[in-house]
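S1.2 Input.
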Amino acid sequence: MKKFILTLLLPTLVTVAFAQKTEEAGQKSPALVFFSDEVPRYTGIAVGAHLLNQYALGDWAEFATANLGAGVDAEYTLPSFLPMNLDLGASLRTEFAHVFPKSGGTLKSDDQLNFSLGAWLRLPFLLAGQTFALQPELAYGLVLHHAKGQNGSAVDGWFSDSALSLALGLRYIAPLDSLRNVEFELAPVYMFSPEKENYSVSQLGFRLGAVWHVDSLIKGRKAQKEEKQKAVLAEQQRLERERQEEEARRLKEEEDAKRRAMEAAADEAEKARIAEELRKAEEERMAAEAEAARIAEEERIRAEEEAARIAAEEARRAEIAAWPNPLLTFTASPQNFTPDGDGMNDTVTFTMGIQYIEETPENWAISITDPQGNAFRTIKGKGALPESVEWDGKSDKGETVASKNAYKATLAVTPSRTDRLRTKELTASTDITITTGLLLEVIVPDHEWKIVVNAMQFAGGGATFDGLPDDILAANNETLDEVAQQIKEHPGANVFVQGYANNVSGTEKENREELIPLSQERADFIVEQLVNRGIERETLTAEGKGGANPIASRRDRANWWKNRRIEFLIKK
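S1.3 Output.
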């Protein structure tokens, strides 16, 4: 505990010592100032690492004394919108810690792997001329324990707990240009896990580390480069002006000297010679001025071109930032499709498109799931989206869709790398629902047909529709209306109404005592419903099959729903 207190006091002692040294050098240290705009503000992503030391409290102190570990973390600072230089952000941390068991306890060893997601508020302040920030953080995460027991304990293996932690971070920014994008942190941390296995885990400790603000470093270096380019251009222009001024002074001095020589000369010829020289000097001066003007104009044009280039780059970045995310369009027709080979509505046509992208997508995929959410069919491709895609109602394993059910189709598109960097969207997706009609399967052409219905629902697991919600009752009646219509289209045929159930236990006793009687009652009830719809009773036969002829095996739990069905066998 003494080490923990000394570690907490260390940054404060260093700060006070630095402030004392500053005062001894004759500089006045500023007072404590909160919400100071002199503290650097950061945006975007930061990465870091830290050491972790925590001490056990409460129930957990019966098993352990402390733990020691290290971790890595990533932070994201939201764009600034709060007053008083406050900032909000989120953090993602991964930590590994070794637990020191309590001597004589039931815990032999324990290693922890922590994953947490948190939110924090940053409050900047100045203290003794140094830049600090308070950063309280609340996080929730998952703790994985790899523990071994001793002294009669049966603990052995991996265990998991959820954890809530509170950290009061103190950030320090060193007064060095090379470290302006690095923050050093000392944070007392309290972590609590809810009660589990008759004990709860409470720990108090500290975290010591540093974070590196990647986005701020990149922006700072870019700004330094631009400032350096402007400084070099300004220095070139200053040197050129000095050279022109020096040249003009030299020419003027030569001109004055020649003029005095001409005035002193008594001979007209000498005066003429001097006048000629003056004329030539004037021409040279004018030529030098013209050359200087030409150079200055070229420098001005280059400066304007550079300014225009920088403005164009900034406009392009603004255009990219304002570009909307990709937008998908996805439709399917017809609804109530029946892929039973009768030439009517045997396929579904998907139409799709994508907007707000600049380049061809990398790939696309249509994922279709059955009424229970299980993967059924995947259609995919690379490059540009086709205008339409047809689906024959078959699964990836060759199975046909079930009658009177709803299937979900999801379109997912991966944009090009350029569009992903521009919009920050890794994928774009949307989904639609496809419904199926009543499928009439031909067993023997012109003699035998079969209709399989597994969407029929009975009240309370029984054999009637009594008490069903209105929407389910309406769906059942619609299905029976369509079955009756199909039977009427085969006059003179005999119809076998077969009820099937799912054998959950896999035993003959369940099948004999429960499933066969229940499926027989349901088949009898469906026969009565068909008679009420005008089907002659003597043409109908009810059969309770129980768990016979399963469509899905006992290992295929995801498709057990297909075993609970009513089959209509139409024979001429």
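S1.4 Remarks. The chain has a mean pLDDT of 86.
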